[in-house]
TrEMBL record:
Compartment(s): Mitochondrion inner membrane
Lipid bilayer topology: Single-pass membrane protein
Single GO MF annotation: cytochrome-c oxidase activity
GO biological process, one term: mitochondrial electron transport, cytochrome c to oxygen
Membrane-crossing segments per the record: 14-33
Swiss-Prot/TrEMBL keywords: Membrane, Mitochondrion, Mitochondrion inner membrane, Oxidoreductase, Transmembrane, Transmembrane helix
Function (record text): Component of the cytochrome c oxidase, the last enzyme in the mitochondrial electron transport chain which drives oxidative phosphorylation.
Protein name, as recorded: Cytochrome c oxidase subunit 9, mitochondrial
Extent of the signal sequence: none
InterPro entries assigned: Cyt_c_oxidase_su7a_fun
Naturally occurring in which organism (per UniProt): Agrocybe pediades
Amino acid sequence: MAIAPITGKLRKRFWLDVTSAFGLGIGAGYAYWYGVHLKSVERQENFYVKLEKERAAAAGNSA
């Protein structure tokens, strides 16, 4: 009684692994970009706007 060979299993598994990796990688990238990066950039921009306003106010008072 011989066991029948399993054909095509590796190829199917390979494409599942590749598509899962791309999907999870892209999802993690979007989560980082919108969850961490853009908030950090907004906080930085707000700091520089505030700093520029303070400098403009100080220059206006001394002139």
